[in-house]
Amino acid sequence: MSELATSLLDHEPDVVITRPGVVYSSCERRSLSADRRRSSSVASARLREPAPRNMVPKLKDPNMWIRPSLDALSLMSETELARVDNLAIGHYSYGKITWPGLTDVRYLSVDDTVQFVLGKVAVFLDDSVRPPVGKGLNRPAVVELYVKPKNMKRARQQPEKYINRMRQLTEDLDATFLSYDLETWRFKVDNFARGPEDGPPRQ
């Protein structure tokens, strides 16, 4: 320890040496600590500050829903909107899609991106807004569609016949079959990419 530091320590018990040759009094130390707290608070506030309204996902169709809710999304920061965990978009009558993991939903217009009809769902109605594979909604997802046999009585007598049919339909879509209980058809897709080489859209 330098002679200067030793001398100061003899007379100032609250002195802190941060590095060789630099000595702070207790008053200066408190000031530095307060500055650090203020800087940390400012940084945290910026992370928590709600994102601009045009960046928050939009959904107008009353028959559809999104999770987290629009209210919850509107309170998220840009950083949080870029990393929404376990996003789900659904239609009250036709089914839902869940994206496990983190999904970037900034600037998402649900009405223009996801469309449900009976037994089908289309994602990215406009190819010009389709992001690269792995970005936005163009990533692995679990699809659930509400599909019931026309003759439920017969289906309950031969459930395996209908399950195998849905399994084959899933394979034809280049997707992974998960389950079918005569009411809900569940399957997994790797992405929602489509092009001349990809065949029909994964619906």
CATH architecture of the domain at 64-145: 2-Layer Sandwich
How many individual helices?
7
Alpha-carbon distance between the termini? 73 Å
Beta-strand content bin? 25-35%
Strand order of the largest sheet: 3-4-5-8-10-9
Fourth-tier CATH superfamily name of the domain at 64-145: Peptidase S59, nucleoporin
Overall pLDDT level: 81
* Name of the CATH class of the domain at 64-145: Alpha Beta
Helix content: 25-40%
Describe the structure.
This protein is α+β, with helices and mostly antiparallel strands and 203 residues long. The protein has a domain at 64-145: Peptidase S59, nucleoporin (c-terminal autoproteolytic domain of nucleoporin nup98), CATH 3.30.1610. It contains 7 helices and 10 strands. The chain has helices at residues 3-11, 26-48, 70-74, 78-81, 110-113, 152-157, 159-172; strands at 16-19, 22-24, 64-67, 84-91, 95-103, 114-117, 120-123, 141-146, 176-180, 184-189. The strands form 3 sheets. The chain has a 6-stranded antiparallel beta sheet with strand order 3-4-5-8-10-9, with helices on one face. Strand 6 (114-117) and strand 7 form a beta hairpin. It is elongated, with a radius of gyration of 28 Å.
